[in-house]
Amino acid sequence: MTRFNSLARRGGIAMLALLAGTAQAHPGHDASGLAAGLAHPFAGFDHLLAMVAVGLWSAAALPAGRRVAGPAVFLAMLLLGAALPRFGLQLPGLEAGVAVSVAALGALMIAARSTALRLPVPAGLALVGVAALLHGMAHGAELAAGQSFAGYAAGFMAASALLHGAGLAVGGWLQAGRAWAWRATAGLVGFSGLALLAGRL
To answer: What sections of the protein cross the membrane (predicted)?
Structure first.
């Protein structure tokens, strides 16, 4: 337990240091093109956490043959969300909603390893879909006026799939008896979402 507490403290300090530079993941710049789409999920700390968290949760909560369902749902809803701003659809408080989604994904990860708290798979996938819709709208809102949606979307979809794959791989490794590491990872994701939310209120 002492080792766990020490690692958790170090992880928390590192996370706070990262958050200090990334509390506002979307500084208002316009995005365009494939390269911008590829970079966007990596440039926003909230996006990066969400993509990886979906892969982690899928590795823990879904049967081995269906683990791609989590990333597949996320990617489909991400693309839909990104298209909505092109039709003038915007949500007030979107940045706060994105931060809440990160905290919710952290909670979903914690619940995945608890028999008492675990959500049914359809409910978990629904939460993943809502989170993806919010992240997609944030992506779409940054597309520069007059720029091609297709290239930009192809970029952020490819980058998101890559991050999902990383989450699945790490999640599979964490399932091998590393309960303390899973709890620490899930806790840091949830805490980061709350910290991002506090910076946006």
So the answer is: 41-61, 68-87, 93-112, 119-137, 149-173, 180-199
